[in-house]
Design goal:
Elements: E1 7-13, E2 18-21, E3 27-40, E4 46-58, H1 59-68, E5 74-87, E6 93-106, E7 116-117
């Protein structure tokens, strides 16, 4: 029997990434991404529904996300859905769904163009030299 756990989201960061280190010294960065869905309700009016996702990145990907992402930036995140439960100080159970990211692509421009990183990549992707970067620059 085959099992599969994959989730992909594109959205904007709702807050700056927060990086910390585990007791073993591994970097871990978390941030939130908001996605919007626009639909027409039964009365014919357009509605917008926002869904928030908590993203967790580890090791080199965590360091890169902490360095290059900030509130408002647009990103593509690919990873797996992970659910956690714990008991709070008040004795009540808590539950959260998070995306543990395998890959993050930076979709908008800040200081650099379209950077994307995954843990298997050691450096930002090379630029393609003279390729058009704006839709108006395309030859068609």
């Amino acid at each position: 029997m085959v099992n599969f756990n994959k989730i992909m989201v594109i959205g904007n960061l709702g807050r700056d990434p927060e990086m910390r280190y585990t007791a073993q010294g591994l970097p871990v960065t978390s941030f939130s991404i908001a996605t919007n869905r626009v639909f027409t309700d039964p009365s014919g009016e357009k509605q917008t529904e926002t869904e928030w996702f908590t993203i967790i990145t580890w090791r080199q990907l965590a360091e890169l996300c902490n360095q290059y992402l900030s509130k408002g930036r647009r990103a593509f995140v690919e990873g797996r859905l992970h659910s956690r439960t714990w008991e709070g100080n008040d004795g009540k159970p808590h539950f959260v769904n998070e995306i543990t990211a395998d890959r993050v692509l930076f979709l908008d421009r800040a200081d650099r163009e379209n950077e994307g990183f995954s843990p298997s990549e050691g450096a930002p992707p090379p630029s393609d030299g003279g390729a058009p970067s704006e839709p108006d620059d395309l030859p068609f």
